[in-house]
Automatic annotation (TrEMBL):
<keyword id="KW-0808">Transferase</keyword>
<dbReference type="InterPro" id="IPR018094">
    <property type="entry name" value="Thymidylate_kinase"/>
</dbReference>
<keyword id="KW-0067">ATP-binding</keyword>
<feature type="binding site">
    <location>
        <begin position="14"/>
        <end position="21"/>
    </location>
    <ligand>
        <name>ATP</name>
    </ligand>
</feature>
<keyword id="KW-0545">Nucleotide biosynthesis</keyword>
<dbReference type="Pfam" id="PF02223">
    <property type="entry name" value="Thymidylate_kin"/>
</dbReference>
<keyword id="KW-0418">Kinase</keyword>
<keyword id="KW-0547">Nucleotide-binding</keyword>
<comment type="similarity">
    <text>Belongs to the thymidylate kinase family.</text>
</comment>
<feature type="domain" description="Thymidylate kinase-like">
    <location>
        <begin position="12"/>
        <end position="198"/>
    </location>
</feature>
<comment type="function">
    <text>Phosphorylation of dTMP to form dTDP in both de novo and salvage pathways of dTTP synthesis.</text>
</comment>
<dbReference type="GO" id="GO:0016301">
    <property type="term" value="F:kinase activity"/>
</dbReference>
<dbReference type="InterPro" id="IPR039430">
    <property type="entry name" value="Thymidylate_kin-like_dom"/>
</dbReference>
<dbReference type="InterPro" id="IPR027417">
    <property type="entry name" value="P-loop_NTPase"/>
</dbReference>
<protein>
    <recommendedName>
        <fullName>Thymidylate kinase</fullName>
        <ecNumber>2.7.4.9</ecNumber>
    </recommendedName>
</protein>
Amino acid sequence: MIILQRGKFITFEGIDGAGKSTHLAWLASFLRDKGLEVIVTREPGSTALGEQLRQLLLDHRQAMHAETETLLMFAARREHLDKVILPALERGAWVISDRFTDASFAYQGGGRGVPSARLEILEQWVQKGFSPDLTVYFDVPVTISRQRVQSARTADRFELEPDLFFERVRQAYLQRAKQFSERIRVVDGSLSLEEVRTAMVEVVEKFWSAQASSGYRM
Ligand SMILES: Nc1ncnc2c1ncn2[C@@H]1O[C@H](COP(=O)(O)OP(=O)(O)O)[C@@H](O)[C@H]1O
Ligand SMILES: Cc1cn([C@H]2C[C@H](O)[C@@H](COP(=O)(O)OP(=O)(O)O)O2)c(=O)[nH]c1=O
């Protein structure tokens, strides 16, 4: 009898320009080299409906109430869980997502001031106790992330927010990293690309060894 083990769910977090997307591809190939099926995905988005919600959420002409924004983020997440994340984990694949619920606590909570208690209700409603197995948080000062984003792409609705908004987002991430220190690993994203990658590899290799020693069959 073949007993299929559930895959692992890894998320990347950080303020815009922290370097998440740059390092995601590396992690995917690291895990694929170990023989795993790996799904790379992102939030908001990654389903047909989720990508439409993403367009509404990121379009700078689309002003919206902070609670509308929050509900749309969780609506996109519900689809993402149902159509992509949970089926992949159940068939044994590993899933790496560029952002997940920590982003709602950081952006809608820290950035927009939506009370954590409300976010926790939505989290419980949508996730029913499900959360990532590992989160890598790339921490960068706002000035650095701004410079990177400005030279890399056209700003979306969030990236047009002032520095103060991103300071609050960053503080909320740091606070959450303290609160969930077992799950959320902080990497200094302000270093050179090579140095950040080395720090990330260390985090991922530790996680990998912990899985192996706890009996996870690779
Ligand atoms: N450690 C780094 N040093 C210098 N530039 C970086 C570093 N990390 C990312 N970048 C650059 O910053 C820009 C934004 O990076 P990206 O990975 O898209 O960030 P995010 O996905 O977190 O928004 C890209 O042009 C990328 O090449
Ligand atoms: C998932 C999520 C993203 N966001 C925001 C953060 C980003 O500014 C934006 C899109 O995410 P993303 O594509 O990761 O942006 P970037 O590549 O610039 O880091 O959506 C929230 O505000 N709340 C959420 O729950």
